[in-house]
Amino acid sequence: MILPRAATCSALVTLAVAAVMSILPATAGAASTPVAPTDPTQPTQPADPTQPAEPTQPADPTPPAKPAKPKDPVLAAIAAALDAKAITPAKAVAYRTTWRSSARSERTARAGARRANIHAVRAYATTLARRRGLTPQRLEPVFLTIRATATILGSHRRMPHHEQELRLPGEPLVFTFYSGRGVQFQPFESFKLGTSYLAGATPRVGAARRVADRMLELGTTTNGATTWEFFFPFGGPAAPWRSAIAQALGLRLYSGLAQNVPDDQRARYIAAADSIVKSFSRAPSAGGVASPQGDGSFYVMYSFSSRQRILNGHLESLLNLYRYSLDTGSTEAQEAYDRGYAALVPLMPRFDRGDWSNYQPGQEAEREYHEFMTTQFAYLARETRDPFFIDYARRFRIYLEEPASLGVRVVLLPSLVRPKDGYRDTIPVRFEVNKAARVTLIVSDTNGREQRRITSSARRGINTMYWDGRTSAGRDALDGTYQGRFSTVDRFGRRSATTINQQFIVEHDTQPPIPILATLTPTADGTGTQVTINVEETSSRWYEGQLFIAGTAISEVVRVKSGPITFIVPRPRAEVETATVRLVDNSGNSSSTALADVLLPTTDSG
After folding, report:
1. pTM for this one?
2. C-alpha closest to that of 576 among 546, 596, 593
3. 48, 174, 175, 601: least buried by Cβ within 10 Å?
């Protein structure tokens, strides 16, 4: 044992005296027996039993102190809360026990994935404590999450799947497993469960109260505003973070309970609701969920992303703020609703695609979110009677119920030419659809036999699809005419069909390029001749040519993209006039023509 510094000197004296007294005679008054000297040639002095021996340099019997281990920041946070009397000794013991047992669960977990998830929640708590963010109010929700993760993943129960909702024995709340992040306490889902108990003809008030009362133990209250935090990173920086939609559902639960409990218990839940309302007037950086937007405030889904605008979280906030102001006359709730309304109206065109909704500007909503927001608008329309909400409730409902319909706008069907050379290679069909859908173009021959089926995702408005003249087997379609029709399927599986009234014409290039007119002019240096030939080539975009005399080439091969072709020949005009021009297109069609036959007559007498 290492003694305190103040006791060290007296302890040394005591030890020395004890060592001397141990050599005294056992019987009092007996003569002392001299000790034989080790060197018989040197006289010895009898030892004075009343004085301690005087060693030349006594060794320090106290071992050197080991350096103190650094404190566990989580245990230090528990100790600090206990010293401040912010938690009871019993709570401190419970938290320490949970912390140590979770470490044991991490070591003994049956699989690496389980260990990794338990380690993750412990790491979140450690990081929060190191940042001095593990405040006394946060101890309970943080250790609830640690206990849930260690209990569920450290057991022999089946490994949950990602985003599976879970329950912990003895807890009325909802937890969610996030792969790699552990089993997390879920404020949103817990409030959602609590509000479900109050729905229906016979509210389950007792069950709702158990959720509500437990949630009050897990909130963080700062300057009168209470929020419920998420203690894991989710697409942003480290935890904790807050969400307006969780706040809104909490407001619904406590305001609903206030209407379902005896009057002597009502004040408790009204006070909780009022403290939630205050979070809608605080910026995310100040512990709230309100982000400035124009003349109002947008209520953010993620406090760590205050510029993100997610529609369903804002609508849920407006709905519950309005209901609470109406039920209780809360001017603070009414003002928060007004600020949220002022932010939403100018932003709504960014959430409305004309045939569907956006989850956030620029991101199309999944079906479940569109249905959710349609319901939110319907509730707001019914309760506020505001034309703005009535209009969007109608629009979003139409987007859900109206089947996709398609009309052919413009069809460009002159022909389809082989081979592929960038010119008339495809038959484009333009069409207009009233809403986003999967559209299939079906091409059949004159006998109704299907030749090709092409499917694409079409956006609302004008779209274009192309047939490249190939069959489903990958072969070129035969020359002739074909019939097309569209089949349309919307998000809900509703189908419609549209016939294309114009025919598709497929033809292969069989016509060679033909020289029409040639001109010869001296080159600038006078040593050769420039030959320019106008060519008729209507089927292939590219062709090439070369000049020959008696089968011998007198020019380079020249390749052109339609239009005239020009050769520079290092020979005099008279000799060039006897040449033959050979032209070949991309389809391999060729012609050979005497230059004299297409030469422009000249009046030059020289």
Report:
1. 0.70
2. 596
3. 601
- The tokens describing 121, both together, are 């929640």
Query: What is the residue whose two structure tokens read 């009057």?
Result: 263
* SS3 category, 575: helix
**Beta carbons within 10 angstroms of residue 335's beta carbon:** 16
Residues 6 or more apart whose CB falls under 8 angstroms from that of 552 comprise: none
- Taking each helix axis from N to C end, the angle separating 311-328 and 244-258, rounded to the nearest 10 degrees, works out to 20
DSSP class of residue 419 equals S
Query: Angle 73-83/112-130 helices, nearest 10 degrees?
Result: 50
Place of tokens 């506020």: 384
Q: What is the DSSP letter of 352?
A: B
**Which amino acid is present at 175?**
F
* Mean pLDDT computed over every residue of the chain: 87
What's the distance, CA 111 to chain centroid?
28
Which segments within 434-477 are labelled E, that is strand?
A: 437-444, 450-458, 461-467
Q: Which of 298-302, 303-307, 424-428, 533-537 has the lowest mean pLDDT?
A: 424-428
456 vs 458: CA distance, rounded Å = 6
- Judged by DSSP in three states, 364 sits in strand
How many Cα neighbours within 13 Å face the side chain of 507?
Answer: 12
- What length is written for the chain? 606
- Residue 586: what residue type? N
